[in-house]
């Protein structure tokens, strides 16, 4: 009985010593290791190759590991990844997380993008469940190169399929024949241009000469324009001054004539109202007198001068 009691006591002491040794080991490990911080990352993409214990790097430098991976209960489109990084890792505003895959099938979480002088990513006080839903800060995400390609793969395949269909519709037998005809015409045109090479060179040379002559003609026209401007400035200006003087004199004469007309207007009005009617009556009387004199002259011519003093003689009557 006493032997059994001693064995139980020894066993209990051994267990206590083992537990103390384990606690001492953990304490020593914590003293020798560095402190860590935990963050949540919500990926809206596939996290193939990522598992618990996967490496976390910051700008390519190993900085921590993945603690857990699970679908987010609030929205199954997102995958919640809990990571822990060294306390001295600069997880600041502007830091983003990306899943980097590899050809070996393993993936890592890459952090980068921190700016100098930015504040660390922390949870607000008081706690906000919309910002830190699980009590730790959240690092925003961005798509990596492979992830972006994989996410856009369906669109790329659809566009490739559409492009293939359009190319198939374009390269029909009729269109191929048309394209072949265009190529043949192009070849003939190229051959014709090659044959006409000397003529084209001569034409270009003549064109160059014509352009040079046109430049010289333009220069001569410019000189002529300058000469014309000088002539106008030296000869035409005095003529214009004389013309202006003549116009001024003509205007003065016109004004004098207008004044004379205004002065003679009463006499002209009296002449037209009084003298002209009397002259008309005199002309009518003269016409009447002239008619009478014409009648007398005609009578003298026919009957003689005696017709003016005697009666007209009747012809003799003879009986049958």
UniProtKB/TrEMBL annotation:
The chain crosses the membrane at residues 7-29. It comes from the Bacteria. Keywords: Membrane, Transmembrane, Transmembrane helix. Pfam families: MlaD. Coiled coil: none annotated. Residues 41-111 form the Mce/MlaD domain. This is Phospholipid/cholesterol/gamma-HCH transport system substrate-binding protein. It comes from Sphingomonas abaci. The lineage of its organism: Bacteria, Pseudomonadati, Pseudomonadota, Alphaproteobacteria, Sphingomonadales.
